[in-house]
Amino acid sequence: MSLNLDPLLDEKFILTISQIFPEFLDKNLGVYAAREAFGPSKNEGFCYENCTSVEFKGEAEGRLFLAMDGYTKLKLLPKIARSFHIDPTIRSHAASIMLEFANQICAELISEMKLGRFEIDILPPENLNHKLVPVDLEHYRQYILIYFLKDESAKQYLGRIYLILLMKKY
């Protein structure tokens, strides 16, 4: 049976993201991520102050977008930079730090999916900051997961992260 016909494929991706994303943030940044909302979306496009896309291809095809507003990026960037052992005060590194952060999250997702015997590879991340991203609803199913971020040790609200998953229809 072809995996392209698996009716639960999208659900497998969403459940896997729902599991690995909070664990990834906790393990690497010490940040608590509570899922506020998730579900299918019919948005014809979106635009965020900070948005990174990682495309994946293989038995399942689609794109994962990691999006946030400026406040969230401002709060998270120093934590992400420290986890990469980079000086967060060097402004020129900000875009590449966020690209690598999204790439690592997607790599975790793909690693988990490969454990489930899916043959999938990721392409290099793409910076889509301040760009209108159209969504072709005829060819893609869209899901959005919204996470509330909090630094438990500093008792500080860090903002929200939006994970947008586009899965190619077959």
TrEMBL record:
User: What InterPro entries does the database record attribute to this sequence?
Assistant: CheC-like_sf, CheX-like_dom
The Chemotaxis phosphatase CheX-like domain extends over 53-148
Q: Which residues form a coiled coil?
A: none
The cross-references to Pfam families, in alphabetical order and at most eight, read: CheX
List the GO biological process terms: chemotaxis
**Superkingdom field:** Bacteria
Keyword set includes Coiled coil:
no
Q: Which UniProt keywords apply?
A: Chemotaxis
- Supply the name of the protein: Chemotaxis phosphatase CheX
Q: Record the organism.
A: Leptospira broomii serovar Hurstbridge str. 5399
